[in-house]
Give the backbone structure.
Amino acid sequence: MSLIEIRNLSYIYSKDTNCPKTALSNINIDIYDNEIIGIIGHTGSGKSTLVQHFNGLLKPTSGGIYINGLDIWKNPKKIRDIRFKVGLVFQYPEYQIFEDTVYKDIAFGPCNMNLGPNEIQNRVIESIRMVGLPFSILDKSPFELSGGEKRKVAIAGVMAMKPNVIVLDEPTAGLDPLSRKNFIENLKTYHSREKNTIVIVSHNMEDIVEISDRVLVMNNGRVEMFDRTKDIFSNGDVLMRIGLDVPKITKIMFKLSNEGYRVKRDVFSVKDGAEEILNLFRCDGGLND
Amino acid sequence: MIRDLAVGQYFPANSVLHRTDARVKILNLLITIIFIFYTMNYFSLFIALIYVFLMMYLSNIPMKLYMKNFKIILFFTIFTGLLNLFDDRGKVIFEFGFLKITDAGINNSIFVCSRVTSLVILASIFTFTTLPTDLTDAVEKLLKPFAFININISEIAMMMTIAIRFIPTLIEEVEKIINAQKSRGADFENKNLFVKIRALMSIVVPLLESSFKRAYDLATAMESRCYRGAENRTRMRILKFKMIDLFSIFLTLIFIFGVVYCNMKFPATVK
Ligand SMILES: Nc1ncnc2c1ncn2[C@@H]1O[C@H](COP(=O)(O)OP(=O)(O)O)[C@@H](O)[C@H]1O
Ligand SMILES: [Mg+2]
């Protein structure tokens, strides 16, 4: 059975005003337990709108969303329980920090779950380690931190709730390459340790390839493709048509292959790419005739 | 959602009122509000209501939007209406225990409700039909005669423009912050005072922080574009006095005359 099931979901912003805006139309997707799903799509394609349905912040205009087979909007009073099952980290979460110490801010979510003080402390420490920050930061005021550190604190705040599903909306936007790489590594470790499900929205194709099992491609509020990562990125032309990109190494491979060199087109990591190119030299230039 | 509220929102349309000079509209608004509170009997109240309906008709704004604004103040109107219902003077009409409802009380209540409603509708008409930039321009022009008491009018106008400009941005911001804290399980429905305050703090602190940041950014941006006060600045849209403005003033004068005439001619129903 699928963990998250979305059926015929449509969403219209400002429905009852003079300028309604359809942000999602007729979405049908299934997400299974223990998967990592990447979501890509051009700006304004409805990614953020979609992920806000996962934890019940937005209510579908029509259609439904089921978690473990249960309609989350069946009892709207219980919607808060969904938020503990599905943790959502917003785009630019650094602006949502409000407590006077980092520790308290991370503990805000677990406190809302009414956990015991020991459990809260364990979770705060665990999640600060997970995002790769030193413990010394716990007693600082969040307002002394840099933008990147604040972002990590905010992400730790959601991780500390240990949700079954964690949804991250562009968590790496604006981070430097090293932080981004570390972040993706940590996220993978976190995933294998917690055995949870991760949904990550990103514009960085390298990150998406690196981490996701399957990729959901959004275009103008519709699902353009939803398939295994490998299969998505072999459709480079479809992606480019809707304003997206493939990883740089894949692009190089496409170019080489178009020039007539015998290389594989489904290469997504630099290591595999280098291997392919070395192979060319090993067997006499590799040109087709 | 909060952002769907129609308060303070310009509604683009082509109507007599949209084309009327903002200065004239401000003065009309102030004067008519004063005279609406000066209606003393049902005849003058009737004239005021006719004026309000005429304005609604002239504004070319869908009824739906007025209803929305009206819904927001409905509770307030009913509450003040109820308070005014109890008046010691006059003939008793109903009596429940110690509560007495008199004819004077009923009159009071009707007048208060109609006045408050008219006020809100006229104010909505004004914001629906006036561009924020025209509004600030008009305020600047109208305040000009007071320049001698050493206030910097163009500066005030600039502050108003900025404030108006950032209302939608702040609303958006609040919405985002609320959603983010809800995602962390913040409980905005809880009755417990302590929980409530904490939930409120989780909105206010980030909002203040980002507002300050925005203010600094804006100041930097203005300075890097050499903003040195708005004195002698020229305008893209120039306010000009037209026939339509005369028409608008004429309507207001008729309204004032009607109210004053009825007040003198007929006995007062409310004090
Ligand atoms: N609060 C809102 N009110 C009205 N329209 C919105 C709102 N939020 C987003 N939209 C619109 O919905 C569409 C999808 O936006 P969003 O989900 O934020 O896209 P993405 O995250 O993929 O960039 C966009 O066209 C955007 O303009
Ligand atoms: Mg987005």
Remarks:
- The mean pLDDT of chain A is 90.
- Chain A touches chain B at residues 14, 16-18, 52, 55, 57, 80, 83-84, 87-90, 93, 95-98, 108-109, 112-113, 143, 157-158, 161 (CB under 8 Å).
- Residues A 47-48, 91, 169 surround magnesium ion (ligand 2) (CB under 6 Å).
- The CA atoms of residues 281 and 287 of chain A lie 10 Å apart.
